[in-house]
Fold:
Amino acid sequence: MYAVIKTGGKQYRVQKDDIIEVELLDVEVGASVTLDEVLLVGSEGKAKIGAPTVAGASVKADVLNQKKGDKIIVFKKKRRQNYRRKNGHRQPITVLKITDIKG
Structure:
């Protein structure tokens, strides 16, 4: 069984025991979180598609870690103007392990 969930403005296709990295969620490490925005629930040959979400469906996950993602370099330059700016950014992310899919 698999599901398509929406969190942090992105969509993820998940199955039981998958480990995914999502945008920062305000929960502690070791806690359990329920994701209610389930867009699709499917199994072998069948799929329930929501409009926009599947009624009564939910995905449970455990929080494994809160960390920062890889550094992204932001470099701005204007030629012949002696203008150069270099910045770095590390997006905070939450690592989840999917434990159960109901739908």
Observations:
- The first strand starts at residue 2 and ends at 7.
- The chain has one domain: 2-66+93-102.
